[in-house]
Amino acid sequence: MDVPDHEPRPSSLELLGLPADARVLIVNNDDFGMDEAINDAVIASIEEGVAASCSLMPPCPGASHAMDLIRRREIPFGIHLTLVRDAGHCRWGPLTAKEHVPSLLDEEGELFTPPRIPDLLAGARLDEVEREFRAQLGAVLDAGLTPTHLDWHCLADGGRDDIFDLTVALADEYGLAVRAWLAPGREKLRRRGLPVVDHDFLDSFSLDLDGKAERYAELLRALPSGLSEWATHPSTGDSGAIDDGRRVRTTDHDFLTSPRARDIIREEEITVIGYEPLQQAWLQR
Question: SUPFAM superfamilies, alphabetically (predicted)?
Answer without folding.
Answer: Glycoside hydrolase/deacetylase
